[in-house]
Records
---
Amino acid sequence: MEERRLPRYLQLYREIREDITEGRYRLGERLPSKRLLAEEHGISVITVEHCCRLLEEEGYIEARERSGFFVSYRESDSFPVRENGGEDEKRRGREGEERESGEKGMRQSGEGEGMPYPILARTVRRTLSEYGERILRKSPGGGIPELREAIAAYLRRSRGIRVSREQILLGSGAEYLYLLIVQMLGREKLYGIEDPSYRMIERVYTDSGARIERLRLGREGILSEELRRSRAEVLHVTPFHSYPSGVIASASKRHEYIRFARERGVTVIEDDFDSEFSGSTKTEDTLFSLEPERLVIYVNSFSKTIAPSIRVGYLLLPRERAGELSKRISAYSCTVPVLDQYFLTELLKSGDFERHINRVRRRRRAEGRNS
C-alpha cells in the first residue's frame, strides 16, 4: 500500500536501487536503456530519467556519453541511504527544483569538497520550520540528544561504530575538543604526539600546561622504536590521514597502538581527520572499534566534510569510562549553538550528508582512475 502512494519514479528508483545493492546488477554492468525500462514498467521515458537522476546523484550509477548508465555502486566505499517509510523520498520529490539548484551549485563550486550551498540553505530553512522555538532553548552540556542520536546512527551505518548518545560530547571544533581532553585526562600527564603533526595539537596541549613528547612517523605510522622508548601516558594519533605528512597507519600499526595502550595503561586519542573521504574508510577498523571499552577516545569534526565555517566536532568516550570522564567536565556548557545542532541533525537524518560523502568519494575514485 505504501509503495503505491509513492510517485512512480520513486517506485522504480527503489526497485533498481535494491537490484544494485543486492547484486543483481553488478559493478560496471550496463543498465537497460531508458526506453526499455519505460516500456517494461508502462511509464514515460521522462519518469525513467528522473529515477536515473536520483540514482546517479547518490552514487549507484554513472552516465557514460552515448553508452547509457552503468553501475558505480561499490559496497566498500558507499554508505547506505536511510529508509524512512518513503517520507524523505517524497520530500525530495517535492523539492525537485531545489535539487536542480543544488546540482548547479555543485558544478559552480570548483574543486572544493564542502557541501553545495543550495543544500545547506534548504536545510537551514527546513530546520527553522520544523524546530521553531526549540532553537532558543539552552543546550545540555554534552549537546542536544537529537544530534547525538543522529551521530550515533551515522557512525553505526558508516563505520560500524556502536555507541550510545551518552558517550558522545559536542564542541565547537577539534581544537576545543583537545582542550576538553586535557581537562578530562589531566595536564600533569605526558602527551605523545606524531612528529610531524598538525601544529594546533601541540599548541593546545602546551598552552593548557601539558607536557608533550614527539614521536617520529614512518611510512605506516609512529615508528615501533619510538613507541618502545616512549614514556607517554596519552597517545594522540591520526591513523587515517596524518597531517601534514599524509601518512595512513597500516592495519598492523593500528593494532600495535592498541597493544601499546593495553601494556602501558595509556589512553589513545584517535583523531579521525579526513576519514570520511578516505578510500579505505569502509574496509579498515578505527582504533575505537578495536577497543571501545576503556582505552580510546575518538575525535572528529564536520569542518572538512561540510564547510570550514561549521565549527562542530564530537568526542566518543569509551563505554566503561564515559560517566567518569563526562563528570570531570560537567561544569562546561556546550559551545555549539543550538541552531547549528538542529541543522546538523537534519543533514544527518535526511541523508543529504551521506549523499554528499558518496559524491566526493565517487569523484575521487574517478580522478584516481584517470590519473
---
Amino acid sequence: MHLARFNPVRFAHLPTPLEPLPRLTEALSGSPGGGPMLWIKRDDCTGLAGGGNKTRKLEYLLGDALANDADTLVTQGAVQSNHVRQTAAAAARFGLACEVILEHRTGSDAHDYNRSGNVLLDELLGAKLRTVPAGTDMNQALAELAAEVAERGGTPYVIPGGGSNIIGALGYVECAMELVMQANELGLEIDRIVTATGSAGTHAGLVAGLAMMGADIPVLGIGVRAPKDVQEANVFRLAQDTADLMGYRERVTREMVVADCDYVGEGYGLVDQGVIDALALAARTDAILLDPVYTGKAMKGLIALSRKGAFDGETVVFLHTGGAQGLFGYQTVLEGRL
C-alpha cells in the first residue's frame, strides 16, 4: 500500500511503542483459562499537544488541507474532545486558524468539565470556540461555520468529528502496517486488537489496513456511544470506503467489523464506577493513564471480558488512543471515587 501518494505531512512521533503490560496481565489472570497476555500500542504518545489517535489522522487531513490552500480548519466535538485539542494544535503547528463547535453532549455544568482539561488547552492553542446544545445537527452546524469563514474571505477546510472520514482513516491504515511490522520484529503473534470505537475512523482504518495486508488479526471495538448495530454499520461503511480509496474494497467483509457496546453505561462521556475502577487499575498496575470517555470505557470492557474468560490464552493488544488530558475536566466526578 503506497500511502505517500496521499501526501501526508509529518509531525507525529512515530512509530509509537508496542509494550507488554505485565502487571495488568497478572491482575487479570484469575479466570479459569488464565486470562489474556496483554500488550499496549501507545498511540497516546504521538506527540502533538499531548498526543492521541487523532494525530495520525491529522497528518493526512492536514496534507489535504494544505494541498487545497486552506487557511482555517473547521471542526467539531464534545466539550472535552481530544480531537478538537489535537486539531487546534495541528492548526497552530502550520500557522492556520481554527474554528470549533463544541457540543454540550453530556449536559454537565461542572466548572472543571466546561473550563479545564481539553477546553483549557483548546484556548491555549488559539482555537476559536463556540458551544451548542446537545442534539444539534453538527454536520449542518459545521457547514454553516465553514460558510461564515468563507464569507469573511477565509478558505475553510472542514474536518468531521473525530477526523473520521476516508482521508483521516488512512492514518490507521498506516498504524495497522506499523503494528504488524513491530509484531514481526518482536516475534509477537497477536490474536486480537481491542480499542475504543466512537466516531469510527480508528476502528475502520485498522480493519481496512489489516484486511488489505491479509494480516488476519481481528479487531474488537468497545463502543463509547452508539448501539451495536449502528456502530458496526458506521465502521463497516467507512472501512469499505477507505479500502476502496486504495483499490481493495472487496477485501473488507462485514464479518471483520465487531463492536461490543455493552460498556457505554448511561451515555457518551458519562462516567460510572466501572470506568473509574478501570482508570485506577491501569494506572496502579502498569502506570497507564487513560481517559474517562474513550480509553477508560474500552479498558472497562477489556477487564470485564477478560474476567469472563473471553480472551483466555490470547495475546491481546490494547490500542491506547490517548486522552488523559481530559482527566482534568473530570476532577469533580473522580474525587472521592478513586
